[in-house]
Write a structure and sequence with these properties.
- By secondary structure, the protein is mostly helical.
- The chain has 2 helices and no strands.
- The longest helix is centred in the first third of the chain and has 38 residues.
- It starts with a helix and ends with a helix.
Length: 79
């Protein structure tokens, strides 16, 4: 490969890697955002299906816990 060919190849690989990393972060955040908007609109709370072992996974677990507590409080109030 020429210098420019190798350079373009490295740039392409860098872009693909960047896309994969960003999509792994943005995807779960979009899922949490949709779930939060549903709850804010008064829809039935649902679990966020995120099972990663990083900060976003921890946030999803806290969100699901909050969801369960909210559903329990709503059920108590309805009785």
């Amino acid at each position: 490969l020429s210098f420019w060919g190798a350079t373009l190849l490295m740039i392409g690989l860098g872009l693909v890697l960047t896309y994969r990393v960003v999509s792994r972060i943005i995807g779960p955040l979009e899922t949490l955002t949709v779930a939060a908007r549903q709850i804010a609109a008064g829809e039935k709370p649902r679990e966020a299906p995120i099972h990663s072992r990083n900060e976003i996974g921890t946030l999803a677990q806290a969100f699901d816990s909050m969801n369960r507590q909210l559903a329990s409080r709503i059920a108590d109030l309805q009785q």
